[in-house]
Write a structure and sequence with these properties.
heterodimer, A: 377 residues, alpha+beta, Ubiquitin-like (UB roll), Alpha-Beta Plaits, Phosphorylase Kinase, domain 1, three-stranded antiparallel beta sheet, 9 helices, 16 strands, B: 528 residues, alpha/beta, Dimethylsulfoxide Reductase, domain 2, Barwin-like endoglucanases, 3 domains, six-stranded mixed beta sheet, five-stranded parallel beta sheet, 18 helices
Chain lengths: 377, 528
């Protein structure tokens, strides 16, 4: 008889598989342990220690993300000791940079001076660009802490925005390392890494150069996984707030991989694109075109009315006139020269439904098999 | 693809050829890189350019342009001679082995080196690595297909996979990477001159009868029609009179553009349906404004045959309309009523007349797409093809001799040109060139050239260079690059202003009708 191995979490006896961590067992069973640095699909680092839990018999609190589950282990995920530790970690993080989400504390004189300083560094009078979309802010609310317990640390590194896509705000970086893992373990572009030491620590590219002068290919995976406001899409920063947008899931329109994307829509315009996490084929990953190449949708150069050419120049026409002209000319040419004298180029850009309709139109209406598209080109 | 994208991480050996994966399929390339870096897979890259993936490769073979059949035959020669073939698979699942063996007999690595320039020992090493793998996956793209021998190249890769039993299992396969969001779907849906949806041949009278009944018409022709690469010359001859172009821009993407432009101008009537006034639309008699992917419902089929939903997020600009609605209106005005309440109704009709899509519905793919073939509502879809048998039963080996590309260098045109895409632009640029950031990263066409060639022609990085072929001439900026091999330049084809396709050769593969974009002869000189 085989006995299955049991771990007890918050009084619940749970079975687990070999190699599963405490975090994985807990999440699989609907027990929420907060994480910041943990990034699914990569090697856990235990860097932020927000996921610490109490393990009976252990001298210290253990990070759930990188502690393997073991038989007869007894774990408490929200004990007073755990909560105290998490509060301290969050307080230190909030004090470590420009976390001006009012969570830092507004009950003393310090706040006004702090906010003014952030405004000046940021060039905006708004609160943090990821207000309401920040894991650190969420946790600060959850554990009811603010940042003024510790003196604010000095921001050593200025904002980097000398590229078209990504703003790197080191003052808001909590050095969790998710961006480094996303770059090196998920996309494997190996463009960024930890640089310097101790209080000088910084995420660097190419020996501390701007992203545009590094191996960065602007896939934006780092932006998507950043739990705070350290990495934000340049076009969306301070312009797009999560509560202002609707999100629609669809399929990317560039290459044939078929990445699942969320279009973030504000005032009838796409203002941001993110990858759909946990869904094949891309599991949240995108490339620079899929993530940032959406301006064409709202372009002023879009065609908005049918055009008919007269004496070498286009004039606008209404749909009835244009469609009658097309139908009439095709009918005429088929009648005069036969079905083989006309052709249809359908498109690898449009939907299956539209390709099917083009195929039906060519074969059933024009009575020609002269239909093709750019598969060869 | 015979296998799925996720399956790449299951492979022991990955052979990537004719695909600059990190630039053209960036997200898919991450699967390759992760397999190599974290799962212990070995990577063989066969490509004339020093593409990014070569940095991850255990072996990089650098063949001369247009010599693919030779190196693939060479690998099979080694695999057969060293007993690395999967005899059981060859016996049970294939036929035509003897003929193949006879042809590849003379392609020993030394003979192949003379054709391809690949050192014999490197070819042997690649053959052994691939031949000994438990599961080996082949990924290829237009570097394999865009040749006058494109069909031969693909068949040769299929030979290699069959010979070693690398089909029908996880981590194996012959996997073409499709370059456009729905090129798979356009093929699946009968956007081809020889087949209806689901690859049902137009020459099969029973199929034609079925479609005529389903559509309530008669007289559908049973002879295959013209490919795009044949339509253009027919227009030139005046035998093709009218063309309806939807969402394509052949005036940048076609080979030998000068000829293509004359041909299209020779049409009596041209309709272009697009979201922008493209180079092609400017030549049209009527331009019809259509909607983009964010403004419509429907489905795309990706490179792994996964049918996925497209959902409307925005109202279309102005009076623009979905492509299907426009075509339905034209059809109706021509006396054949086509009317659907929505795209789902069209999809349901597709499922009714297309066996490989028969089991699919919007409800089934709401959360996650499914892989065709999916013949019934209970069928889970088919992530891996050919697990039990091939479409024709036994897999047929094609014994293929190497033949050189259609155009060779000579005294007048002493350099080779190969073309392709770059990361920051897409196809003819009508979409990507609307994003300032992408233009900042990739503002204009360039001529990628090796340092040795640059020195020979006294060209410095940033100089303007004139590139001429027998068909046309362009001027573009020099980019001296370690990616380039001596004797061959590379130009991306995205940029209409210095369109690489003014130079390319319209010589076609006799079977697929694909043009030889990847090889032509040019001469270069410093521009004033």
């Amino acid at each position: 008889m085989t006995t299955s191995k049991i771990i007890t979490i918050n009084g619940r006896e749970l079975t687990f598989e070999n190699d599963e961590t405490i975090l994985e067992v807990a999440r699989r069973n609907g027990i929420e342990i907060p994480t910041l640095c943990h990034l699914k699909g990569t090697q856990p680092t235990g860097a932020c220690r927000i996921c610490v839990v109490e393990v009976e018999g252990a001298r210290n609190l253990m990070p759930a993300c990188c502690t393997p589950a073991a038989d007869k282990m007894v774990v408490r995920t929200e004990s007073p000791q755990v909560v105290a530790a998490r509060r301290l970690i969050i307080q230190l993080m909030l004090a470590s940079g420009n976390h001006n989400c009012a969570i830092r504390g507004s009950d003393n004189q310090d706040w006004t001076a702090f906010q003014l300083k952030v405004q000046e560094e940021d060039g905006s009078s708004d609160l943090c660009p990821v207000w309401g979309d920040c894991r650190l802010q969420d946790l600060a609310y959850r554990y009811q802490v603010s940042g003024e317990r510790f003196d604010a640390t000095v921001n050593r590194y200025p904002i980097e925005d000398v590229n078209p896509f990504i703003v790197r705000d080191f003052s808001r970086c909590i050095l969790c390392g998710r961006c480094v893992q996303a770059c090196c373990e998920v996309q494997v572009n190996n463009a960024i890494s930890f640089g310097y030491r101790g209080p000088f620590s910084k995420i660097i590219a190419a020996g501390d150069r701007p992203l545009k002068d590094s191996d960065c290919v602007f896939c934006g995976e780092c932006v998507q996984v950043c739990p705070v406001g350290a990495l934000v899409e340049k076009e969306a920063r301070y312009r797009v707030r999560p509560w202002e947008t609707g999100k629609v899931r669809t399929t990317c329109t560039y290459c044939g991989v078929g990445c699942q994307i969320l279009l973030h829509v504000k005032d009838g315009k796409v203002v941001k694109v993110t990858g759909v996490p946990d869904s094949p084929p891309n599991h949240g990953s995108l490339c620079v075109k899929g993530r940032f190449g959406f301006d064409f949708i709202n372009s002023e150069k879009r065609l908005t009315k049918p055009l008919i050419k007269e004496n070498g120049k286009f004039r606008e026409a209404d749909w009835d006139e244009a469609l009658d002209l097309v139908a009439g000319r095709f009918r005429e040419i088929v009648e005069k020269n036969g079905s083989e004298s006309v052709g249809v180029l359908t498109s690898a850009r449009v939907t299956n439904e539209e390709n099917y309709i083009a195929n039906k139109f060519a074969r059933a209406v024009l009575k020609t098999n002269n239909i093709d598209h750019c598969a060869r080109l | 693809m015979t296998n799925t994208i996720a399956d790449i991480e299951e492979a022991d050996v990955i052979l990537v050829t004719g695909s600059n994966t990190t630039e053209n399929h960036p997200v898919l390339s991450a699967f390759v890189k992760r397999a190599v870096k974290f799962k212990g897979a070995k990577l063989i890259v066969v490509d004339p350019r020093r593409i990014k993936l070569t940095q991850f490769a255990d072996l990089w073979l650098r063949p001369n342009l247009g010599t693919d059949v030779a190196w693939i035959n060479g690998m099979m020669n080694v695999i057969i001679n060293e007993g690395l073939l999967d005899e059981d698979f060859v016996d049970r699942r294939t036929e035509g082995f003897e003929a193949l063996r006879k042809v590849v007999e003379k392609y020993d690595p030394e003979f192949v080196e003379g054709i391809t320039g690949i050192p014999a020992e490197a070819l042997r090493a690649a053959a052994r690595l691939y031949g000994k793998a438990g599961a080996a996956s082949i990924l290829y793209c237009m570097g394999i297909t865009q040749h006058t021998t494109g069909t031969d190249n693909v068949k040769s890769l299929a030979n290699l996979a069959m010979l070693t039993g690398n089909l029908g299992r996880p981590g194996t396969g012959v996997n073409p990477l499709r370059g456009q969001n729905n090129v798979q779907g356009a093929c699946d849906m009968g956007g081809l001159p020889n087949v209806f949806s689901g690859y049902q041949p137009v020459t099969d009278l029973a199929v034609v009868k079925k479609m005529e009944d389903a559509w309530g018409v008669s007289g559908i022709p049973t002879k295959p029609g013209l490919t795009v690469t044949k339509m253009i010359p027919m227009a030139h001859e005046g035998r093709l009179k009218a063309l309806y172009i939807m969402g394509e821009n052949p005036l940048v993407s076609d080979p030998d553009l000068n000829h293509a432009e004359k041909s299209i101008k020779n049409l009596d009537f041209l309709v272009v349906q697009d979201i922008f006034l493209t180079e092609t639309a400017q030549l049209a008699d009527v331009v019809l404004p259509s909607t983009c992917f964010a403004e419509k419902d429907g489905t795309f089929s990706n490179t792994e045959r996964r049918v996925q939903r497209v959902r409307k997020a925005l109202e279309p600009p102005g009076e623009s309309m979905e492509d299907w609605k426009i075509i339905c209106s034209v059809a109706t005005r021509m006396g054949y009523e086509m009317k659907y309440p929505d795209s789902e109704a069209i999809f349901n009709e597709i499922a009714r007349v297309t066996p490989s899509y028969a089991g699919l519905s919007y409800a089934r793919i709401e959360k996650e797409g499914l892989h065709w073939p999916c013949p019934s509502a209970e069928h889970p879809g088919t992530p891996i093809l050919h697990t039990q048998q091939f479409a024709r039963g036994r897999g047929l080996f094609h014994a293929i001799e190497w033949i050189p590309p259609s155009e060779q260098t000579d005294d007048e045109y002493p350099m080779y040109l190969t073309t392709g895409r770059i990361l920051y632009q897409y196809h003819t640029g009508t979409m990507t060139m609307k994003t300032g950031g992408l233009n900042f990263k990739a503002p204009e066409a360039f001529v990628e050239i090796s340092a040795a060639d640059a020195a020979r022609y006294r060209l410095a990085d940033g100089d303007m260079v004139r590139v001429s072929s027998r068909r046309g001439e362009i001027v573009a900026r020099v980019k001296v690059s370690s990616k380039a091999v001596d004797g061959t330049i590379f130009i991306p084809f995205h940029f209409a202003r210095a369109a690489a396709n003014r130079l390319t050769n319209a010589a076609l593969d006799p079977v697929s009708g694909i043009p030889e974009y990847k090889v032509c002869a040019v001469r270069i000189s410093k521009a004033a």
